[in-house]
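Hey, resending since the last one bounced:
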Amino acid sequence: MFLHTDADGFKLDANHDQPIEADDLPGLIAAFNNRDELWADWQVRDTSGPWTQKWWFAEADAIEREDWNLSASRYRPESREAAEHPDPRELLAELRDQTTAIVADIDTLAAELAERAT
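The structure tokens again:
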């Protein structure tokens, strides 16, 4: 069983000593303590849908195929819907338009500064 936490109940700063509401640890402890029941749920899950839980299992043969590497992310089911990416040509055209607008603004500011200096 693999477990993943995004929040441990403390602010993620240099001191890590200020409590916050977000805390995944109690739920993960409960998941670990109920892992036999969760194993049954895991086996009948809908593999076509996104996985949103912070726990998951990996079969021993899958771990063996990965040369016994226990990096959890290798076995974590996809948790997001497939992303749709715009055509790169559209992105380049948009970037070109924005860059042109920025250069025009820079030229305008430079002209205004030049007028004030004279």
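The chain is about 45% helix and 10% strand.

Sorry for the duplicate.
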